[in-house]
Design a protein that fits this description.
The structure is a homodimer of 420-residue chains.
Chain A: H1 3-20, H2 23-39, H3 41-57, H4 62-68, H5 72-86, E1 95-100, E2 106-113, E3 116-120, H6 126-137, E4 141-145, H7 151-168, E5 175-177, H8 183-190, E6 198-201, H9 205-214, E7 227-231, H10 237-249, E8 258-264, H11 265-281, E9 285-288, H12 290-295, E10 300-301, H13 304-308, E11 315-321, H14 324-334, E12 339-343, H15 347-356, E13 361-366, E14 383-389, E15 391-395, E16 401-412
Parallel strand pairs in A: 3-4, 3-6, 4-5, 7-8, 7-12, 8-11, 9-10, 9-11, 12-13
Antiparallel strand pairs in A: 1-2, 2-16, 14-15
Helix pairs in contact in A: 2-5, 2-7, 3-7, 5-6, 10-11
Chain lengths: 420, 420
Amino acid sequence: MSEIRTLALACKDASQAMFALDTETKRTLLHDMAAALEAQRDAILAANARDLQQATAKGIQGAMLDRLRLNESRLAGIATAVREIAGLPDPVGLVTRHDTRPNGLEVERVRIPLGVIAMIYEARPNVTADAAALCLMAGNAVILRGGSEALHSNMAIASALHTAFEKHDIPTAAVTLIEDLRRETMVELLQLSDIVDLAIPRGGEGLIHFVAEHARVPVIKHYKGVCHLFVDASADEALALNLLVDGKTSRPGVCNALETLLVHRDIATSFLPRAVQVLQECGVELRGCERSRALVEGIRPATDDDYAAEFLDLILAVRVVDDLGMAIGHIQRFGSDHTEVIATRNDEAARRFVQAIRSAVVMVNASSRFSDGGELGLGAEIGISTTRLHAYGPMGAEALTVERFIVRGDGQVRHPQSKL
Amino acid sequence: MSEIRTLALACKDASQAMFALDTETKRTLLHDMAAALEAQRDAILAANARDLQQATAKGIQGAMLDRLRLNESRLAGIATAVREIAGLPDPVGLVTRHDTRPNGLEVERVRIPLGVIAMIYEARPNVTADAAALCLMAGNAVILRGGSEALHSNMAIASALHTAFEKHDIPTAAVTLIEDLRRETMVELLQLSDIVDLAIPRGGEGLIHFVAEHARVPVIKHYKGVCHLFVDASADEALALNLLVDGKTSRPGVCNALETLLVHRDIATSFLPRAVQVLQECGVELRGCERSRALVEGIRPATDDDYAAEFLDLILAVRVVDDLGMAIGHIQRFGSDHTEVIATRNDEAARRFVQAIRSAVVMVNASSRFSDGGELGLGAEIGISTTRLHAYGPMGAEALTVERFIVRGDGQVRHPQSKL
């Protein structure tokens, strides 16, 4: 048997132990995990220093190096996040529906863990603790396959978490860190369809495509966010401007940042010059259609590629549209099913927008930046699904479970046999 | 562009139209579909006669030929099933949760259709109408890829359904029947990950494996049912015998039939001889462990392959176990996550069984044959999922939708900018 299969099978066995844990045990385990991260602070930071040194030697710098970096305050933040997850409601065992059938059968729908979740991610070592904690709180075991840049940090974090498991006599394989980071090993992991119940890739487009291409296990993609703001003819202009600036500039590098502004032609003459001025003061580069460029100077021509782009930068695509229908058509063509916003004072326009747009999150008069598990009340998130199956949008602990059926009877049979 | 991609894109466009339909329009559409099936009865039966003739010429006979056969009463049954689906509650638009955030945002979880569903199935032409009706009621468009034996029947049924679409000015591509049944075309369909939201394979193991191997779109498997009955030491023997006979003999060829009997050693001496006698009178062949064979004559030796088998026939595997834990271990090793039953009068044993078994449906003192969407109150089912993601167990209309987020505000931003 291959090494990765052996590891995954041990994780599957551990998932059976996780399935049986009650809420209080899981909470205590998570608190002990947080304490272990703090107790092993020096070892984790030393491992991280080694990763940083190797990354620097490879020429990695800027935002990527920053994502890799841990320090005392970031590590304290990771422990705090694990404790917050321990305080979430336990989705496992939740009875979502109950029905008594005419024949007397009591039918319940009850949430159970998915089983074994494989997280595939890149450079950020905090995901190792975050993802493990959220998967465990939902009763799952987890296989973690992080990026090579963070390997020593991830190993030190996993090692700390394991000390908490030993204390509770839970198999450490419930959190299995893959140290063999060859691509062919990842492919093998993604094809263990008798073991892995779900793979969640989190990272750049290249990683997501690789996972989707090679996986034979179910995948929930956390794909790009090409988020739109449509400023309707009836919009409150000051409100719309606030949403625009917050959406584009408050954190341009994240998936819930705005990438495209659509403006109704009846408000464009008034709104667009103001908007462009404010955005340019914030350092935003604008790329627009001909109509927008005729209204305001300083907008470069936009191509279809710009409308399809997740810039993750201070760049915004702009288009003036004839009406709500044209805005909807644009989003249907160029959107990525992540988050779209309408600014309007017209209830009927809001209703039509919500009805026609199939994205995971649709906002009326609120910033796209709220498209986040914490902000929407999930407590914590493992990511934002753009797969329209199982979970769509921010995924919390509940999205790491599934409903099954429990049926209680007193001897009911489907075809009674008279002879018995 | 390939022909299959062109067809699938038209289906995706139609899914946008389906998404926007209100409940009453969908119900009227389904009633018109049922009426069209009746109106085109002669054409459908003539097409079916052609399929039957070709199948007979190819040497197909018995149960498989019977599954392919339509007649007036079966066709009337198909129309009735479509009308019943029209009467189901509409899952689309259902608000499953509502939360007001501290900042005043109103957050709703609302069900929307999945989009485009590809049904991959085998010889039964009734699936063409059934699956189309259930997918449409949940607001989806559907791509149907049936078996070659039923092609003319399926074409005639799809043609009848399309007349109802034209009446409502809904694109007929909302129900797209694939007539090119080459394997490479099916592979291409299963890899249209920008178009197809879900593939559901229904059929034999070969088909399921083929789809799982080649799909790059999400798949929910309707895999085999190796269903177990565990007769606990405290079971009511008459009750357990009823469950056993119903589970094994009432319809042995379906996935919710029993395949394995596990008997607690403390009740085996009394229960097993009675059970074997009744089963043998029903024509059931028994294959058992050494302990069962020592207790009763006429049981052939069982292998591990027998314990893993979905016999779909009048064959039952038998094993005497030391206790509940050994029964659970057996099911964890050999089960297929479909349906398991415990017969017991001991609440604690029932609780432990339910807690340890992760199958989609767990029954206490009820027949495995109730593991069915209609019997469990879903109204109709598209199948029984053995994939522990999205839907697990019988899948009704609601399982063909997903929850998304709708957020309403009055201008909330995440990082207020003082300068605006």
